[in-house]
Amino acid sequence: MSENKIKITPAKGRPMLHWVGKKSLDYVKGFPTQLVEVFDPLNNGQIIETPTYDELKGNWQNLLFHGDNKDVLATLLELGFRGKVDSIYIDPPFKSGADYVRKVELRGLKNLGRIEEDEASILQQTMYFDIWNNDTYLQFMYERLILLKELLADTGSIYVHLDWHVGHCIKILMDEVFGPDNFRNDIIWCYKTRQFSRKYWNRKHDSILFYSKNLNYKFNCDEVLNPLSENTIKKYRLVDEEGRKYRLEGRGITDSPIRSAKDVDPKWEETHPELVARDYLDKSGYPPEDWWFINIVNQAANERINFQTQKPGSPA
């Protein structure tokens, strides 16, 4: 039986980051999927044994794959998902040096440690063992970013959640894979923790690198608008001929007497129209900023299941 080699588009962006053992992907091999479990709360009875894109596009069902993510990404390519994914969010290992799974007990020189019998599986240990050397980590991320780009639609976007440990390196990697022109933004996730030190500026944010596959990406701002406060709405006291509310603001002309909205006299719209402009009220909200504040999960909350990398959670 011949292997089905799936060709991969080489990364051509600049700048490039180099490390020992760097190797691009020429091709990958997809592995067959095996149905393990079906969650069917509506009792539709629609079970798809092989989740190809053609089978799912008219009858979408959420999928949860068990396996190494590189192998799963290759399988998705083989199943017809190349160029079909609109949005990707990944939360890869942070290369923080943290070990989320293993509990090692030192018992002298002859027995340096053990993994307790009811601990996580070997697969889980590999997935959440966040201790890497630089070269291994960079190759791990490089291969997966290349495959993720293959899955993205031409109008799709990807968000990669990292922190201070290695975010700067992955930024350069993504410039190579996606191209620096497709870098859209570095979103800052601010958080509060009880951790505090007088030895350095305390780390209170993560970064989410936002890239698109091409320049013609889709971004639906209306879905993420921030609501206006009542105080803001009250500032729109004027009404035009069509009943729309607005306020006056300065045009930003040099040497203008208007420094803020408080300096504007409503009469100036007739007496000094060259100095003022109308700012209409848009009740749908205002566009979001590129910094977010998201409260961490309350440790006493019912949904917490003692998983140390739960999002939103208290970063290490």
Please outline what is shown here.
The protein is extended, with a radius of gyration of 26 Å.
Describe the structure.
- This protein is α+β, with helices and mostly antiparallel strands and about 325 residues long.
- It contains 7 helices and 10 strands.
- A 5-stranded mixed sheet has the order 3-4-6-5-10. A 3-stranded antiparallel sheet has the order 7-8-9, with no helix packed on it.
- It is extended and about 80 Å long.
Q: The biggest beta sheet, please?
A: 5 strands, mixed
| Arrangement of strands in the largest sheet | 3-4-6-5-10
The span between the termini is: 47 Å
CATH class of the largest domain: Alpha Beta
Oligomer: single chain
Shape: extended
Into which percentage range does the β-strand content fall? 15-25%
Structural class designation: alpha+beta
Q: Which consecutive residue ranges, at least 5 long each, have pLDDT under 50?
A: 109-119
Helix content: 10-25%
CATH hierarchy: architecture of the largest domain: 3-Layer(aba) Sandwich
Please trace the helix and strand order, writing H or E for each element: EEHHEHHEHEEHEEHEE
- DSSP summary: helix tally: 7
What's the alpha carbon Rg, rounded to whole Å?
26 Å
> How much is the average pLDDT?
81
Strand tally, please?
A: 10
In the residues, how many domains can be counted?
Answer: 3
**The CATH topology of the largest domain is what?**
Rossmann fold
